[in-house]
Amino acid sequence: MTQDKQVIIIGAGIAGLKAASQLYANGIKNCLVVEARDRLGGRLQTVSGYNCSKYDLGAAWHHDILMNGLFTEELELNKKCKDSESKRFVFDDNQPIFVDEERGRLDHDPEMILEFIDKEIDKYTELEFYQSLDVKDCSFHDIILKYLFERRDTLTDDQIRYSAQICRYLELWHGIGWKDMSAKGTYFDHQGRNALVTNFDSIIERISSSFPKEWIVLNTEVKTIERKGKIVVVKLNNGEEYTCEYTVVTVPQSVLELSTKDPNDITNTKGRIEFIPPLNARIQEAFRKMHFGGLGKVIFEFDACCWTKKGSRIFTLAHSKETFVNNVREAGSWDELIKKSESVNSTDKPKDLTCWDYPLLFVDLAKSTDVPTLVMLMQRPLSNYIESIGDDKQRIFEFFQPVLDKIMSTLDTESVINEMFGATTASNKIGPKLKNIMTTNWSIDPYSRGSYSTCFPEDDALEMIIAMSSGQDSRIRFAGEHTIMDGAGAVHGSWESGKREAAYISKNLYNK
Ligand SMILES: Cc1cc2nc3c(=O)[nH]c(=O)nc-3n(C[C@H](O)[C@H](O)[C@H](O)COP(=O)(O)OP(=O)(O)OC[C@H]3O[C@@H](n4cnc5c(N)ncnc54)[C@H](O)[C@@H]3O)c2cc1C
Asked: Which InterPro entries does the entry link to (predicted)?
């Protein structure tokens, strides 16, 4: 039997929940929110560790706090927190610490002044692409080589060797390696500071309790969306069928992309929605010019903090070779330098892959929230490999042990002692005692298929945003991080896009 709804929202991430909340506030009383997973939040997921500390496996920060509407709401709530209650966020921005395996700390080095070179590369990239709009995009890797080739006479050997590696911290913003990253899209302005959320579960709870619980149906996939005259027919995988006046599709860009493909050509069709008629030409075209990143996390929980809290952001650099400097010095052209540059194997598990093959970001929670834990951020393809190891904590520890030990020596303590699986250590041993490891699985999870939208060379994010915000048609609408310009890729962007679609639908429902 077909049931009628005013609006059906597909996906209960922050975009879908915000849309539902706003529709209810606008007086719309007959909605359904269909969610494929057994939980709310989508790419916001708070979990508990061995000592009951909470961690966010997906988003963890409010970004761009000068223009982040969600943060503004949270700021008001934070003001009302009693002193005894924990705050809803903490400001944890710090000067990053850069650690190289051989050379140790490289930040604030008075000879190399790598922070200045990093800023110069940022400016160089801006001048390269924005003085003339015709300049062809290339990878972030290649633009760095171009800078080094053209400016080598102004740089010392150490600056050439290490600035190339320092810049790669941006891989941990985009969730992909420098060879996949669009040079044009790599650098972007931050609209204010970042605030570490403690934790996102409270935000999900707050928004989802602002509309009727009966609206939400979990563990259910939307399979088909069909436009029939003035109505939209939505079919679920449990056989139920609904008609509605409007639908808001908030599934991630990576899942929506499956709708542009023949189901016979896809190994796992979970999450795929069949659109009848198919997604419009503009949307199909936009998928050719936009990609999806693969940020992942590994959480290392210790029994206590025995290291010096020097900073909340520790970047470990990928290996660099002295031969790299010679290549830069001797290259006859930029092209020649690109060809000569050592190629990092881009397969998921090169035979001899090590933790020093990629730059990594370690967030020291001991510094910001007093929790003795390091949260490590990693990019694709490394995240694909580590997430595929899944729950084999011992293997994950062995893989990252060298980099963890290096960090600990930088923070004035001894090597990590593995006390996972209930093992104990002689009481005279010093060094941080590792109790537990947790790993994300965003790349494997069929309802995320990675982390968030990002640009490969020659992509154009604007085409996707325009196509998505215009909708499939006047009644089949889209929301989510990939559908909006301000806050693209981020939680506040998703949240705003949910608000945007709720406003559009409310206006049209009341004006009919
Ligand atoms: C590791 C990681 C770190 C991040 N860090 C930050 C950060 O610090 N700050 C920040 O601002 N952003 C961060 N982000 C990005 C942020 O998490 C996302 O932009 C945001 O949560 C996306 O929300 P959304 O509602 O658009 O999509 P989602 O949260 O993905 O919601 C979409 C929902 O649709 C559901 N769904 C999929 N297919 C179907 C179907 N067929 N039927 C029904 N339901 C379906 C999914 O299960 C999901 O719940 C991070 C993301 C990741 C993965």
From this structure: Amino_oxidase (IPR002937), FAD/NAD-bd_sf (IPR036188), Flavin_monoamine_oxidase (IPR050281)
Q: By alpha-carbon position, which residue is closest to atom 14 of ligand 1? A: 59
For residue 427, report the distance from its CA to the centre of ligand 1, in Å. Answer: 44
Q: What percent of the chain has pLDDT over 70?
A: 97
When pLDDT is cut at 50, 70 and 90, the band that residue 344 belongs to is very low
| Protein residue with least CA distance to atom 33, ligand 1 | 11
Give tens-digit pLDDT for 46-58.
Answer: 999 998 999 999 9
Question: Measured between alpha carbons, how far is 141 from 328 in angstroms, rounded to an integer?
Answer: 13
What structural domains does the chain harbor?
Answer: 2-45+199-290+460-510 (3.50.50.60), 97-192+294-439 (3.90.660.10)
DSSP assignment of 390-413 equals TT-HHHHHHHHHHHHHHHHHHTT-
Distance from the CA of 492 to the center of ligand 1, in angstroms?
11
The confidence score (pLDDT) of residue 346 equals 46
Enumerate residues lining ligand 1, CB below 6 A. Answer: 10-16, 34-37, 42-44, 58-61, 63, 221-222, 250-252, 255, 271, 273, 295, 297, 440, 442, 447-448, 451-452, 480-481, 489-491, 494
Q: Can you tell me the distance from the alpha carbon of 323 to that of 165, in angstroms, rounded to the nearest whole number?
A: 14
CB 309 within 8 A of CB 364: yes
70 falls in which pLDDT band (50, 70, 90)? very high
Give the whole-angstrom CA distance, residue 53 versus residue 49: 5
**H helices present in 155-223, as ranges:** 157-166, 171-174, 183-186, 200-208
Average pLDDT, the chain: 94
Give the bridge partners for 47, in sequence order: 55
- Among the listed residues 488, 494, 454, 437, the one whose alpha carbon sits nearest the alpha carbon of residue 57: 437
For ligand 1, atom 31: residue with the closest CA:
13
Residues 114-147 have pLDDT tens digits of 999 999 999 999 999 988 888 999 999 999 999 9
**Phi-psi sector, 421: left (phi>0), alpha (psi -120 to 50), beta:** left
The residue assigned the tokens 């007959």 is 30
Give, for ligand 1, the residue of 382, 452, 453 to mutate: max count of ligand atoms closer than 8 Å to Cβ: 452
| Closest residue by Cα to residue 358 from 399, 416, 310, 413 | 399
Distance 268 CA to ligand 1 centre (A): 19
Q: What's the confidence (pLDDT) of residue 342?
A: 63
Phi first, then psi: what are they for 207, rounded to 5°? Answer: -75, -40
Hey, which of 10, 14, 18, 43 would you mutate to test ligand 1's pocket, going by the most ligand atoms within 8 Å of its Cβ? Answer: 43
Q: Which of 17, 235, 251 to mutate to test the pocket of ligand 1 (most atoms within 8 A of CB)?
A: 251
Q: How far is the CA of 441 from the centre of ligand 1 (A)?
A: 13
Express each pLDDT in 294-306 by its tens digit. Answer: 999 999 999 999 9
Q: What is the DSSP letter of 98?
A: E
